Amino acid sequence: MFRKPLMALTGLSLLLAISPVRAGEPDMAALTQEGKEVMMGFGTALKAELVKAMKEGGPTKAIPVCNVEAPKLAKMASDKSGWAVGRSSHKLRNSKNTPDPFTRAAIDDFLAREAAGEKADKMIKTAIVEEGGQKVFRLVKAIPTAKPCLNCHGGAGVKPKVVEALAKLYPDDAARGFSEGQMRGVFTLSKVLK
Ligand code: HEC
């Protein structure tokens, strides 16, 4: 009769004892999960727009998706979730996407690991940092180059029309010459903790 509740209680206290989250401390696993969901929402919406535009008119038609829609979709994802959402890279196309020091350090770490043979697709860095007197949860995730990305971020295979259109919009474009699987850049997200 008394055994079961007692066992349940023991189980519960055990669970509490081994749980890494203590009262008042942010739950890193939950924050990482939340961040991943916001990131995937943005990433999926962006990819859908890109694929649709490429089907309709090829890469030249799809450039505005990255140019105009990507920042809009990032802002929408931010407004909806309360997270700051963006993209960045070590080889930038748009200088507006220049990494801040935290993102830059994550990118450098990912690049070193990639050079040592690790695949980019699973690389992620999370941390809680102090920014302007506030505690902020940061998440940076590597984005590997997929085949469709090569239309606008590849090397010699990029069509002359696309090269021309990109050169007009981005005279200082450094986001070329990638190969499939290589890290193209990162998603970078942050959330101010209360
Ligand atoms: C139709 C052309 C096109 C395709 C295809 C494309 N991109 Fe881009 N990409 C762009 C443009 C244009 C920008 C600049 C966006 C801006 O002005 O913010 C950009 C910017 C980026 C950035 C932000 C960093 C920077 O350099 O400014 C990342 C990361 C990125 N692309 C990754 C990808 C990935 C990954 C894929 C494949 C899933 C992809 N892109 C496919 C045109 C393209």
Separation, N- and C-terminal Cα atoms: 44 Å
Please tell me what the overall shape is.
Answer: globular
How many distinct domains? 1
Largest sheet: 4 strands, antiparallel
Annotation, overall tally of beta strands: 4
Q: Approximately what portion of the residues adopt beta-strand conformation?
A: 15-25%
Helix proportion of residues, in percent? 40-55%
Query: How many individual helices?
Result: 5
Q: Going across the biggest sheet, name each strand in turn.
A: 1-4-3-2
| Rg from alpha-carbon coordinates | 21 Å
Residue ranges: pLDDT <50 for 5 or more in a row? none
Plain-language structure description:
This protein is of the alpha+beta class and 194 residues long. The protein has one domain. Helix content is 51%, strand content 18%. The chain is globular. The structure holds heme C (HEC). The site of heme C has 26 residues, from helix 2, strand 1, helix 4 and strand 4.
